[in-house]
Amino acid sequence: MAILGAKTFQNYIRGEWVDAISGETFESTSPANGDTIGVFPRSGAEDVGRAVAAAREAYEDWRLVPAPKRGEILFRFGQLLSEQKEDLAQLMAREMGKVLPEARGDVQEAIDMAYYMGGEGRRLFGQTTPSELRDKFNMSVRQPIGVVGVITPWNFPIAIPSWKILPALVCGDTVVFKPATDTPTLGERFVELLAEAGAPPGVVNVVHGGGGEVGTAIVTHPDVPVITLTGSRETGVAVTRAAADRLKHVHLELGGKNAIIVLDDAELDLAVEGIIWSAFGTSGQRCTAASRVIAHEAVYDRLVSRLVSEAEKLRLGVGWEEDTDVGPVINKSALEKIHSYTEIGRDEGATLLTGGEVASGDGLGMGFYYRPTIFGDVDPEMRIAQEEIFGPTTAVIKVRDIDEAIQVSNGIKFGLSSSIFTQDVNRAFRAMRDLKAGITYINAGTIGAEVHLPFGGVKDTGNGHREAGQAALDFFTEWKSIYVDYSGKLQKAQIDTAE
Ligand code: NAD
Predict the structure, then answer these.
(1) From the CA of 153, how far away is ligand 1's center (Å)?
(2) Largest CB tally within 10 Å, which of 129, 272, 284, 353?
(3) Distance in angstroms (rounded) separating the CA atoms of residues 78 and 156
């Protein structure tokens, strides 16, 4: 375990690197082998107050910087991310645990978002419309709102901050960012590169620390009108409550319990590949992970035996070794939670087909590794088929037909991603219409979102907003309608009638 010599990091406020006022710290450690990655300030409400004051002050000028110029900073940021892609991926494999190809994908998503949102600097379209009166001009424009509080989880440590911070910046808002305490080094690198790309002092600030202290202080601060959070449902509810008194705008991306439907006419090889990737990629720690498989009774046995044999081939190990398929889970409490669901599944009467145990041999004992786990004979109402486990565990449910498959897929409180494997275009279109989810994939797994389409879910996955694509702009701006009367007289809408 390497603790001595671990680098010490600071908060970034008003363009300066500073310690927490309390002087307290916490460590970021690798889930792969326990190494200390860095030491970070354990900040509190006073640190948040300073960051918000800096962001509030910077906002007055930033909102007036022409949007194409703001976009150019994002383009430079995209270039810097591209240059640093491999280093960031290596760091991510160490600090968060995901395997290198996925870590590179995480960074690539931020690069894509930087270019997409950079281009938005020359769009940010409003509307012009005719007036009902003569000599009058009507239009609507997007306006920035102010300081945005950005609170992120650890599972996409570069991509998720980019989904929030980049649209906020191009729209003319300023940011106070609290990264997850499991991945602070990546959050710090993100902000460092934004500063290098030309974000002026105070436009982006980072304050490290826990959700209870730093998160709550951001959410309740009177000068932060907009909060964007990706995290668990429980945190989403707590944040909504804390923000309610000030009627803040709250954007939530929360949990999932996503299912892949495999019908009797599915291309089975493709379905197996899609399920293994969606269930065990990122060790199942994606909000879009396939933690349920809904199999038509005609293919159930064949599918289950193929899945078990493919899952057992997956190689567990540290994410930075190129031949690792599945890395560690994020920390000890995640490992314990995942294992507790194996016990729950057994007690509920599901059949444990493979996995179901902590992996500690072959030098894995220093990290948090869990064997890819598949349950069969799962009833849709069992807890393992209803609750988010956020680990490499999937539950296979047998159904008679497409009607039952759609009903089971929809029979949960979440509604993020969904998928169906079928060769029948009619069934595919029924699924597109009837699956209650923010995202539906046809003949692909539940993961693979692209940055130019809206991202988010229905029901308890969120509160109706979307990230990415054009939809993101709606959260980070407010519409203003403008009426210009050049008739020289007082014209009354709805009362005067133009001839
Ligand atoms: P979490 O809810 O524990 O933490 C998320 C962030 O919120 C962290 O930065 C944390 O410090 C902060 N936080 C915690 N309590 C807070 C409070 N009371 N006030 C303010 N901030 C607080 O989630 P996690 O364990 O980091 O991430 C896993 C969860 O995130 C899963 O439920 C997963 O489904 C969800 N997730 C959703 C999406 C999506 O887009 N829908 C994407 C990724 C992850």
Answers:
(1) 5
(2) 284
(3) 17
